[in-house]
Amino acid sequence: MDWIPSSNVEKRRTRGPTVNRILDQVPFGGRLEVTWRNRRAVGESSKLFKSACTALVRQTREIPLQVKSWKSIPIDIKKKAFERILKRFKVEDHMRWVLEQIHRSYHSYRRYLKRLWYDTCGTIEEARQNIPPSVAEDDWQYLTDLWSSPEWKAWSKKNKENGFKENNLIHTCGSKSFSQIYEEERKKTGNDPGRIRLWELTHLRSDGKAAHPAAEEALSKLKALYAEVSAGNLHMTEDEIYEKVFGPERLQRERGITSKELWGELRKQLDESKQRQEESEQRCVAEVQGLKEQLGRVEGLFSEQMNRFEGLLVQLASQVSSPVQTERPTVNPPSQRVKYESDTTISVS
């Protein structure tokens, strides 16, 4: 078992637990707006939002530690965690993004526990006794058993090797997300920063110099390509220059910042907008076709009525043109009139 001797590891002084006193100053029932960019909280309330997720994970103990990973946590527990965040922030339509932030806070918390309270011990027995103040004893025993298992060690070793290959460019933006850096630069300049500008903001020091050799090498390549483009010897777009230096984008690749992370949401919105437009056009075509069919039926009925009307006009015209014979009233003959008068006289007497 490979252990780091505790005598060679010095515990650094760290900040205390997150209590989020600023959020507690918000009036009861008041909720803060959260701005989103590429599935991440940005803007004025982003820090309070992330702190609330961290406090939820570390202090409420509503999210269990006795699971192998975040995926193993039941969905009903995750929904309850979302409801707690919903009481303080207006995030009704972003449950998935909120849970992603809680997931990041949960993963960070477990890494913190392992780094400060497990990796600093010389033996597994010592680690079992080194229980963090904020963790229950049964939770800690589960975690120490998990981290010392052969399966976990093999999985962790593989991830470290992959991480070393993929993340040879370490960012310099601290706890801020790339999305937050992007938003701050956009507000500062009024323009959306490009991929190379964002890489400079997240991988160079404030004086514009590289923080480590890998970044220095990448920066030199970028400057050389820009010089060629400025001199007219090379015709390349910013994205082409970026991919020339950092290589084509790959799945789960995190060297610098990828267009999938920062521009993927915009591309998704454009695709959805295009799909909605196509569906709208299809509905319009169907409606126009329906109106044409309806107009055809109306024209047929109108033609039929006109034919009948013309027939009636022909009949009426023929009746008007033929002579009309009228019968004259007949006058009773004198003999009948005399008889009638005599009958009347007899009837009276």
TrEMBL record:
Region (Disordered): 320-349
Pfam families from the UniProt entry: Transposase_24
Residue spans of biased composition, Polar residues class: 320-335
Name this protein carries in UniProt: Uncharacterized protein
